[in-house]
Specification:
The protein is an alpha+beta fold. Helices cover 17% and strands 39% of the residues. It folds into two domains: 19-41 and 56-202, Acid Proteases (Cathepsin D, subunit A, domain 1), CATH 2.40.70.10; 228-385, Cathepsin D, subunit A, domain 1 (Beta Barrel), CATH 2.40.70. Strand 19 and strand 20 (322-326) form a beta hairpin. The relative contact order is 0.17. The structure holds 2-acetamido-2-deoxy-beta-D-glucopyranose (NAG) (2 copies). One of its GO terms (biological process) is proteolysis. GO terms for molecular function: aspartic-type endopeptidase activity.
């Protein structure tokens, strides 16, 4: 009996495919979902450069660039396989990589896919354009074999970028993006990678999970087909998805020191591995920054002296009746020994179609604290403190 149980466990854990993620500091805030970003692009008040002050030794632009981190991992496309680094993004649903045809600087700095070198590639002759907060790509659709760890998907439709914006997409350490949100966010007529894994039963359970480490000794991980429970402490708390587009849930309160700082009438929270910070409505973020940072430095409401960290309150988020604390050493990032950066950002008031007047995006700042499970079988998100 004991042996049977043991064998059962081994078989189960073998069904989970784990892809290690590299964490790297990057230029600006990482990638965001295209819908979000279309809106962001129109609006410049949050432009980072607006805050920079050429007279200062450190412009806040540089500070922010320095502080943001992205996580990415390896996939292959084609036969024989061509290897790419992709950002596994729960805030979008498309897969794309640069094409060998792309001459933009942001493509030549990255690995480019060569369809001629793949015997399984099929062109689709459909033009596409994707717009993210961090930039945009124009290209065409094609289909080929994709491999993620030992998971193989034949005839996966993906984008080949032929023209990419400079700026963030040029600076990021990954080549392309692999979206893990719902199919309703994907380019019309295409099936996202995870839907193919699920529908063709390449994986045993229709779930994936993220462990984003905050410590260098721990390796970040995305896992497909099951949950390795050694990556979290305590029980997973399940939260129903409210709209099957983003990984979106209902949040009921946000407090600091007993003061309501957001979500006073209830709100929606988007759990997004492709966003670095905690993003909310500008007027609320402005008030939070005033509350926690009455004496900004470098002319920037997000910059403060690191001495302040010990006296700052913990942010408490209540989701589905459970309180998720976010202590100051998580929502504050260190730029240098003395200069710190508050990881809140405004801008979500311009988001549409989220069925709410108040939206918060819980990015990597939150996900370093909480291991997250995305369950397409039951349309729910599981959260537990990261191990
Ligand atoms: C790439 O896109 C930019 C902006 O839309 C445009 O000005 C440029 O001509 C395009 N380049 C190519 C090679 O298509
Ligand atoms: C993270 O590292 C610590 C210290 O080495 C270790 O105790 C812990 O088990 C690691 N956690 C995971 C999930 O690997």
């Amino acid at each position: 009996m004991k042996w049977l149980v043991l064998l059962g466990l081994v078989a189960l854990s073998e069904c989970i495919v784990k892809i290690p993620l590299t964490k790297m500091k990057t230029m600006q805030e990482a990638i965001r979902e295209k819908q979000l970003l279309e809106d962001f692009l129109d609006e410049q008040p949050h432009s980072l450069s607006q805050h920079s002050d050429p007279d200062k030794k450190f412009s806040s632009h540089q500070l922010k660039n320095f502080q943001n981190a992205v996580y990415f991992g390896t996939i292959t496309i084609g036969t024989p396989p061509q290897e790419f680094q992709v950002n596994f993004d729960t805030g979008s649903s498309d897969l794309w990589v640069p094409s060998v045809d792309c001459q933009s600087p942001s493509c030549s700095k990255h690995k480019r896919f060569d369809p001629q070198k793949s015997t399984t590639f099929q062109p689709l002759n459909q033009k596409i354009e994707l717009v993210y907060g961090s930039g945009s790509m124009k290209g065409v659709l094609g289909s080929d074999t994709i491999q993620i760890g030992n998971l193989v998907i034949v005839n996966q439709i993906f984008g080949l970028s032929q023209n990419q914006s400079s700026g963030v997409l040029e600076q990021v350490p990954y080549d392309g993006i692999l979206g893990l949100a719902y199919p309703s966010l994907a380019i019309q007529g295409t099936t996202p990678v995870f839907d193919n894994l699920k529908n063709r039963e390449v994986i045993s359970e229709p779930v994936f999970a993220f462990y984003l480490s905050s410590r260098p000794e721990n390796i970040s991980m995305v896992m497909f087909g099951g949950v390795d429970h050694t990556y979290h402490k305590g029980k997973l708390q399940w939260i129903p998805v409210t709209q099957a587009r983003f990984w979106q849930v209902a949040m009921s309160s946000m407090t600091m020191n007993g003061n309501v700082v957001g979500c006073s009438q209830g709100c929606q929270a988007v759990v997004d591995t492709g966003t670095s910070l905690l993003v909310g409505p500008t007027h609320l973020v402005t008030d939070i920054l005033k509350l926690i940072n009455p004496n900004p430095i470098l002319n920037d409401e997000q910059m403060l002296s690191c001495d302040a960290i010990n006296s700052l309150p913990t942010l408490l988020l209540t989701i589905n009746g459970i309180v998720y604390p976010v202590p100051p050493d998580y929502y504050i990032q260190r730029f240098s020994e003395r200069i710190c950066f508050i990881s809140f950002q405004g801008g979500t008031e311009i988001l549409k179609n989220l069925g709410t007047s108040e939206t918060w995006i819980l990015g990597d700042v939150f996900l370093r604290l909480y291991f997250s499970v995305y369950d397409r079988g039951n349309n729910r998100i599981g959260l537990a403190p990261a191990a």
